[in-house]
Structure formats: structure tokens, C-alpha cells
Design brief:
20 strands; mainly beta; 429 residues
Amino acid sequence: FSGFDSEYGVPGHHHHEEEEPPLPGEEEEEEFVRIDLEQTRVDLAGEYDLDSSFLRGIRFRAAVNDYEHTEIEGAETGTIYDVQGTDGRIELRHAKLGVMEGAFGLQYRREDFAAIGDEAFLPKSDSESFSLFLFEEFALSDTWILQASARYEDQSISGADLVEKYDEGAFGASLGAVWRASDDIRVSANLAVTERHPTTTELYADGAHVAADRYERGSVTLGNGILSKETSTNLDLTVHGDTTRWEWSITGFVNSVDDYILLRPTALELDGFQVFDFAQADVEFTGVEAEAMFEIVDKDDRHMHVRLFTDFVNAEEVSTGENLPRIPPQRFGLGLHGGWDNFDGSIDAIFADDQNDVAENELPTEGYTLLNASLSYTFPDSELMLMLRGSNLLDEDIRQHTSPLKDLVPLPGRSVHFGLRFEFLTLFF
């Protein structure tokens, strides 16, 4: 059982209380927008081993979620968003059949959404999905392993206020291989073809999404009808190495998506917000991710290692070559971590390039350097830890290109945290 209760302001958003301009010498009174959020969730999960000739075990989980948030403008209650959700999954693990072993199962999800108020940008809707899935692994030899999976999902979206309803099935499948070329080198490849349903927001949005600082319009709202399912074909290749002191991996991927659903920024403005329209286009993502770690010192009472990483992705529309919105820039990272007796410390830096490959009506984002450090001490024969952590030590103005609020709200500036942590175990009999 978990509960969450929070009230926070939405930076940069306020409404003017007075309809007429203030008189000379008077200040205009503002009503700032706040969010009052409550969530209650109950989760149940379990696993049971079986000893039948075919089934070896069953794993299940279920969840019930009650979520509500209210937009408060000054002292007035604005729009109320209410979401009631249920989610259940059962997975059955079967006995090994020759070189094949795996699992199959089903999953069910339901979400009832309601927005009450003049500024609701989504209509009331009920979403329901039912899925069947299968995963199998084939151990062909000591050096070769094949993996295969498949999933079918039926989804429906209904509601009394919906002009057009949605009820479709989607299919996905993947095939992968792992080859241990030597004791130190492992190569893996994966090919996946998947379909994705459009969401309620992508279909029916019509209004100001205050938390994201934009006005959103779905395809049905724009008169373009129900969006087609996305069809993604993704191929990735990874080479992983692990020697006495070095551990590294490099991954390259190409993802071609037909009817990709994107939120396209426009030059229009409504209710003081830039308008974003949901649309579809054939797109292609290409990218590289790489990481390496080197053990400088590895002793019983002390250790030290350095970590390097980088990642890069390019995303374009196939027909026009236009850049997709909100694509992260290339990043480089360097970190040093070490420990000596009861002390443990680290320092790491992330360098992000400028992002100038932007979509139409999207602003570029400057690069940044994010420097963090931490130091901790664990008292002998105790579970008590003393820790000191510093974030954004260079106090840079950091704006993440992937954030819809990046032009409005930067990441936090320099901060230092000091704390004590005590871990304990309580047994109930």
C-alpha cells in the first residue's frame, strides 16, 4: 500500500485576477497556479513454484490505483483530473522442452479518466486493453543462444463524449541472438517489429496542458480522424567485453517507424500557449551508445574505478528530412568512484552538446556541463551512514532539450545535501 500527497506551483503560469488594467501606481494582483495531487495505490504480487510435467511456476501481480489532481488558481478550484486504474498480469513458466525454455501469459489493464472544469483539455474516457504474450529462449550451444518473443494486444477507448471511438488490435514480435565469441567478448543482436496504439491524449486532446506549458490538439479534434497504429522495425547490435580490469559495451541501432505519432509544434498561439498538434509521419532513428569502466585499484580494503560513456541519436522524417522535436543532444560522461575502508566517494561530470538540430517552430538548446560529487562514511559495526552530496557544483543554467518546460524552467542550480541514514530490519513473529 502506498500513498502520495503533494501540492506544488506550476512555474511561470498565473492568471490576472482583475479583468481591467490596473490604475497608475497600482500593482496588478496575480493568481498563481498550483497543483494539489493525491494518489493511493495497492499492489499485490506473488510467485508459486509448480512441479508438473509442463508448468514450472506461476508469477502474478495486480494493482489498483486512485489518482486525482486539482488545478488551483489563487483561492479558486480550477479543473479536477481523476484517474481510476486497474492492472493485472499472470505469467506461466513452462518446463524445458529440449533446448527451449520460456514463459507465456496474459495482461489486463483498465483506466477510467475524467476531467471536471472549464479548462479540461481531455474528454471523459474509459480505456481497456487485453494482451497475450510469449517469450522463448533456445540454448543451441555453449556459445549460441536464440531468443524469440511475441505479443498481441487488443485496446479500446470509449466514452459518451467521444466523437469517434477506438477499438483495434496490435501485434509485436522480436528475434534475437547472443554469441559468445570468446571468454571476453559477447555479441548480441535483436530485430523487433512492433505496433503501438494511439493514446487518449493523442486522439482527443483539445485545450491548454498547463503542466506542459502548451496547447494540445489531438487528431480527432483536428478533424483528421483516428490515428493509425505505429509500426516500428528496430535493429540493434551490441558488442560487450569483460576482461580483468576493463568492462565495455557499444550498441548501434536503427529504428524505422511507419506512421510515427509526434507532437508537432506550430506557430499558432491559443490562450497564451503555443499550439502543439498530434500528427503522423514516417521517421527513422539512428544512434550509438557506448560505455567503458576501468578498475584502477581493486584491493580488499580499497578500490577505485573510472567510467566513461557517450550516447547520440539522430531522428528525421523520411520524406522531408525534417528533424523530430525534443531529441536529446549528444552527451559525454566521465566519472571517478573510489572507496577506502569506511569511506566512499565519487565525482562525475556530464557534458551535453548544443542541440541545434531542431524541428520547425522549436527553439535550440545550449549545451551544459553537469558536475556532481558525493562523500560518505559508514560507522564501523553499524548500519549508520554519514553522507555529503553536491549537485550542479558549477551552478550552470541547465536546460534539457527533451523537457517541454526547458525554455521556462531550468534544472536546479548548485545544491549541497547533508544527511544521516540508518538501515534496520524488523522481524514480526
